[in-house]
Amino acid sequence: MYPPTTSTMRIDRIEPSRRRKDRVLVFLEGGDLLRVTEQELLVFGLRPGLELPEQLLAQVEQSAKRSEMKARGARLTGSRMLSKKQVMEHLTRKGGDRELAEDTAQWLEELGAVDESAYAAAIARHYAAMGYGPGRVRQELQRRGIPQELWDDALALLPEGEEAIERFIRRKCKGKPLDRETQRKLAAALQRRGFSWQEIRPVLNRLGEEMAEESGESLPKGKLLLCKTTSGGIFLPIILLIASGGSRSHFHRLSRENLLECSFARSQIHIPNIRGNTA
């Protein structure tokens, strides 16, 4: 029994909604309308002629709001993966009650409709397949509201970045040699894609060397490290270190003819762009 109230509302008629199959329209005497679900009909025993005290009417209305929000949440998660944070954002976007949205997100998680661990793994796989690195995946996990305690497991699914970095560089360069400015731009682009400089540098250096050799371009400037003097006073270069910016050093010998193109400065011989014979 509900305590006596100053006013009650009588149900005039009940009809199914023509626009929404999951909604029932409860018409009250005086012209008021309640939009409820079958859940409220069963729980509160709604029927034509029933008197609704104010307290009971408030309970019906609150239950109807909760049912409506659960239905919206179910529709959202039925078509795509979402985090609880994203569910709440969708449900409150047009003024929905935040507490009801939190309850709905929790309810969906308990049902298994929201699985943030599986969602995090799917995000990691998706961005890895697109050639992005760990940094970009972290950004996406944060943006989509995945709890931070789930990040490590998702990031552990990422493959080694070397292959993705090499594929990106080769696609951008199309076999052309890598000069210093091109390397700088590629490194910046790869960092924007979520790779760290520690991951980028060795691949960039290795490919720089390989592409220079493949293209047959002239070797960059280097310095003579060791030389000897003949009886005639002529300096004969023994080993030339080519500073190509790579992770390994290339050693070349200069021919006697190439030596004539060297310029002497202080105690070192500076070599112009000369392609020597590989030692």
Give a written overview of the molecule.
This protein is an alpha+beta fold and 279 residues long. It contains 11 helices and 10 strands. The chain has helices spanning 38-44, 54-79, 84-92, 98-111, 116-129, 134-143, 151-155, 161-173, 180-192, 197-215, 256-259, and strands at 8-16, 24-28, 33-36, 51-53, 222-229, 235-242, 250-253, 263-265, 268-271, 277-278. The chain has a 6-stranded antiparallel beta sheet with strand order 8-9-5-6-7-10, with no helix packed on it. Strand 6 (235-242) and strand 7 form a beta hairpin. The longest helix is centred in the N-terminal third of the chain and has 26 residues, at 54-79. The model is unreliable at 218-279 (pLDDT under 50).
Note the main attributes of this structure.
279 residues, alpha+beta, rod-shaped, 6-stranded antiparallel sheet, 4-stranded antiparallel sheet
Radius of gyration over C-alpha positions, nearest whole angstrom: 36 Å
Q: How many runs of DSSP E, i.e. beta strands?
A: 10
Major beta sheet summary: 6 strands, antiparallel
Low-confidence stretches: 218-279
Q: Would you list the SSEs in sequence order as H and E?
A: EEEHEHHHHHHHHHEEEHEEE
Helix content: 40-55%
What's the overall geometry?
rod-shaped
* Mean of pLDDT: 79
- The number of helices is 11
* Beginning-to-end CA distance, first to last residue: 102 Å
- The proportion of residues in beta strands is 15-25%
Spatial strand order of the main sheet: 8-9-5-6-7-10
Please give a quick description of this structure.
With 279 residues, the protein is α+β, with helices and mostly antiparallel strands. The protein contains 11 helices and 10 strands.
